[in-house]
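For anyone still unconvinced, we reproduce a single protein record, the chain in one-letter code, the fold tokenised, and leave readers to judge:
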Amino acid sequence: MKYIKLIFAIVAGAVVLAACANTEATPTTNPELPASTPAPYLPTLFEIKNDAKASQIRLDDPRPNIIFIFTDDQPYHTTQYMPTVRDVLMKNGINFENGFSTTPLCYNKVYTNTWPEGGARKFDDASTYAVWVKDAGYQTAYFGKYLNDYDSLEPYGYVGQGWNEWGVFLGKNLHSDDDIGASQYYSDFSASENGSVVEYNGENSIFGADYITRNAVDYISDKRDEPFMLTMAYYNPHSPYFWAERHDQQFRRTGALQAEAYRPPNFMEEDVSDKPQYLQDLNPISVEKIDISYKQILRSLLSVDDGVASVLNALDKTGLSEKTIIVYITDNGLTVGDHRFGLTKNCAYESCARIPFIVYAPSIFSARSDEHIVGNIDLAPTFAELAGVTAPDNVNGMSLVPLLKDINADWRDAILIEHWPTEDGVGSKIPEFYAVRTAEWKYVEYSTGERELYDLVNDPYELENIADQPEHAEIQKQLKLRLDELKKE
């Protein structure tokens, strides 16, 4: 996979911040979406080992369990086609409508995915949320996909610092185009299990997402009497957009789950003369390919939804539902034909930067839809505070805890979004940029000298770039000053 997701590093690195048919869906700017019809699905994919409840001592302990679930390249709006995420997490949790991925390919002076400018070898894991919460007395577990180039770490199957339990995919990384991923993370993979390499093929084969879910359910069962921090890093729905065989009929004509065609106003935008030169020069991929891939993405996400259902069931059966906070996000958004892009990330537009961002703990925080601007950089300090410790001073981002407790808590009015060109793929064609995103505006500065300004209230699909127009000179000036301030932080 060209763009291994660095979201774990982004939220964990303390020095900085801590996988064929067709259809489409709807816009990324949160209009009223056509609801898919939930298929009858099993409440659990994997059952817990036994139905014993957590001890009274654990239930009396005020420290919450924390479960962090994240996906790979999930378009913002696609949670609407995940029955459990939509009907349970979003309905009964805090749904942050303005969640953003600030620097999905940069962390701790790691600017790209390959050595020497980036990759797992450059990441310093001595101070991460895993280390902090473990030091605070938590059990910690990481299951799924880790950093790009993880296979190159020594010893082979290296276990990250701060993790008590480790079940991480090993597989050849493919450093190629944006739209080509690594099928090894879906099937016929190997995994580092606490440093030992285990092969999952032949009679021992299991779908990659189900491997994560099974480990998570077993972990909840095993650790019911201790506070734990569980990270579930799904590769789904990253290209090549593979799905579990049990979901093969979904989002087809005969499937119980259906989706409307994805045709927001900026789909295959015709006039991009106001956009940066790199976008004008891009050769759009076919609508047919976009439509086929889109259905595959929705189908791929269903195994994640099964995983969420299994985790919720495990928490119910262990009596830990009221002791557990679940955070669900993706590493970055994904264009699906927006602005003539194919299926890619790295851009400054909403479809790239905006992400699902849900905090589910109905017994602790009241359910609501929240418009505050939050980012992946906020998760590391949030996990620290939930565990009763303080993140280091040099960690970017803000703890969400005050905002989770009180919708009127003091909060930011803007967030920085930035990009450094990647080695290849579409990300290599997008110039370095810095952008400021407020509740109503977005202002972008490129290293080429080009600028973009969007009135998100009146132009939520970012169709008209109004940068450098005299009638908007004052707001552009104000946003530039705010951008400069954020770049210094």
